[in-house]
Amino acid sequence: MGLGLLPLGLALGVLITHAGLPWWCASLSTAVIYAGSFEFILVGLVLAAVPLATIALTAFLVNVRHVFYALSFPLDKVSGRPARAYSTFALNDESYALATGPQARDWSGARLLWLQVLMQAYWVGGATAGALLGSVVPDTVTGLDFALTALFTVLALDAVRERRGDLPTPLLALLSALIARLIVPGQLMLGAFALFTGALLVRHFVTRSRPSHA
Fold this sequence. Notes:
The chain is an all-alpha fold. Helices cover 70% and strands 0% of the residues. The termini are far apart.
């Protein structure tokens, strides 16, 4: 997973320098914000001088899925307030996918914490290297912004294989993406995340209020 995050960080660093931002913005963003897909989106928002309120709303819609991650992430295994605070900050899609899988049931809190530390180290190091090397990467290189989408696709396929009985969830995700592509093609990721989150909330409340026949 770390080797997967490294080229993604490189892609982010290259995009930041090609956007005309100083190289240290890549290091600062990955160390302080550490929000993966939102950091790719943030580059365009900064260049467009979008108001802070819009940036905050975008960050909320893109990352609100982390609220659901917290419900099943094994944070109780991590000891100490500083360690728990960092583990909460460093909770991302990749660490969640690994820490909640069947292979991680016997993992200790220290292993979970080091997993997150090393993932961010790969992310910060890759972005910094990409930013420093951005000047030698020609502007004609395309597809770097698709690197994160590719990793999410792999994680999604792994999740579908592990939960073969949960067909509605990937169908909801696909439907959300298709609707977002038709309604807001310029903000596909943001629109798809918002629709998917809304669909999951509606399904949760509907299933919870449905009477049991047991």
